Predict the structure of Nicotinamide-nucleotide amidohydrolase PncC.
Amino acid sequence: MTQETRVTAAMIVIGDEILSGRTKDVNIGAVADFCTDLGIDLTEVRVVSDEMDAIVEAVNALRQRYTYVFTSGGIGPTHDDITADAIATAFGVALPINAQARDMLEARWKQTGTEVNEARLRMARIPEGADLIVNSVSAAPGFRIGNVHVMAGVPVIMRAMLEALAPTLKGGKKVKSVTVKAAVGEGTVGGPLAALQEQYPAVKMGSYPQMGHGKVMTELVLRSSDEALLAEAAEKVRAMVAAAHEKAGVAPPDSE
Amino acid sequence: MTQETRVTAAMIVIGDEILSGRTKDVNIGAVADFCTDLGIDLTEVRVVSDEMDAIVEAVNALRQRYTYVFTSGGIGPTHDDITADAIATAFGVALPINAQARDMLEARWKQTGTEVNEARLRMARIPEGADLIVNSVSAAPGFRIGNVHVMAGVPVIMRAMLEALAPTLKGGKKVKSVTVKAAVGEGTVGGPLAALQEQYPAVKMGSYPQMGHGKVMTELVLRSSDEALLAEAAEKVRAMVAAAHEKAGVAPPDSE
């Protein structure tokens, strides 16, 4: 993969409830899958608290370094929802009520008979120069400013926002993967796998022990954007694993 | 909570498989719960790839800043398990085979008839000056060097290592929490909650919309290490929520 085709991303999960353990994050996995599908290389994730300095520091560190930044959390109507404030601070722009966002919210509130108040109007504050990320689940929009995409923390809303912004992102060259299952331990295949990794530096090889199956199992995962090279390397890994099975006198796992 | 009693922590999750979405992390939640139980304030989490520079940078940034650092992942026997190498580099120390770790591993391998080879012996390489973190699930130890605690990525092993190191950690003043359930939306309680937050700065108030219950529900979570103050603030929040229920003409949720 050349430098030109590599598209990178970082994610920032914002929320005390994740750091206290009260809420278990599922958005990292969703963004990871989303990026992999688009050929975007998610390179780093940070989870930070609902503190202005922590959010600003993470946003400014990561938006310089990666093609895209995705954030989740902190865009609701309560005082601890300070993501929009922090993003405006990070970019040095104002945070006015956005007319389009206000219209979207008020239209929804009219349908549901919800009172318009100051807390709810917090959700219409959008940094100057940002585009809205609409979502079909709640009427409250996320937004994009520069390369930073600000989304809700509620998983179903965050996923709707990802769908909405997908067409606006450029993908990289897609990385394909091949999984080879071995009925021996990581320690058995570790040496020969390292030798194959050296032989195929453009194919990234990972090894993952599978626990809780009542028998020893290891999954070897090969990734590359070069399909021909990936197939060649996978053939070598399969042969190496077959030899390891034979040496250990064990049957290969049922399927790959 | 005074500065003296505040004990902080950061976590580093190491592994390409988390960033690609292939594996969904559950260790962040486990470490978050663990810290909360001990009165340790988990303040930041980073997920980084299996790259030397990325791991070293995260370790050196976070170990300066927090009382403790916990890492998960990358201590297995294969070439992509480079956490021990990265920690040794971050601390500027050698990474020799540790005799105690080797003995523990060899004893287990003898029991299971597992061959000793170079790949498996990678797991006995421990940075100079580190103490082992033993675990009952696998024989491969984690280790502690300075304030950095290096653990396995396999969740059941990581949790066993957390149990092993718990007695070695100093806890902070325990933070208690009270949850108040409201049958109105976040936007309805947002304004009065912000006013109460200003009145009780030592009680951290968070607001979490509950989706998928078929009706509007919000949980307000109050946290403080000062129990009397927490009880006082909770009483005020309950009264505020009761008034909101009455104004909206809705019944309070079944239980708190």
